[in-house]
Amino acid sequence: MDDLTTQIEYLRRERAAVQARIKELLLAEDPGRGVVFHEEIFRLQQDSLRMETEIQILQARLRRESC
Q1: Any idea what DSSP says for residue 1?
Q2: Based on the structure, what is the number of domains in the chain?
Q3: How do the pLDDT tens digits run along the chain, 67 residues long?
Q4: I need a labelling partner for 14 at 20 to 30 A (CA). Which of 35, 44, 46, 49 fits?
Q5: CA distance readout (Å), 24 to 8, 16, 41, 64
C-alpha cells in the first residue's frame, strides 16, 4: 500500500512539473516571430494525460487493497 501511495505522489509531482513546463512554453511562444513550441507542448500534454490516467489506476488499486 505504501508503494502505491509513493508512486501516486511521484506521478503527481512529475505531472505538476510537466504542467509548469507547458505553461512556460505557452508564455514563451511568439507566433509573429515564428517562435512556436506546438510539438513539444502537444507531447507534454499527452504525457500529462498519461500520468493522470496512471494516477487514477493506482488510486483504484489502492482503494481495492484497502477494502
Answers
A1: -
A2: 1
A3: 789 999 999 999 999 999 999 999 999 999 999 999 999 999 999 999 999 999 999 999 999 998 8
A4: 35
A5: 24, 12, 10, 38
User: What nine digits make up the cell of 21?
Assistant: 513546463
Domain residues for the domain of 18 are 1-66
Q: pTM of the predicted model, to two decimals?
A: 0.89
What residues contact 21, with CB distance under 8 A and at least 6 apart? 44
Q: Read off the C-alpha cell for 13.
A: 509531482
Q: Please name the residue that has the C-alpha cell 501511495.
A: 5
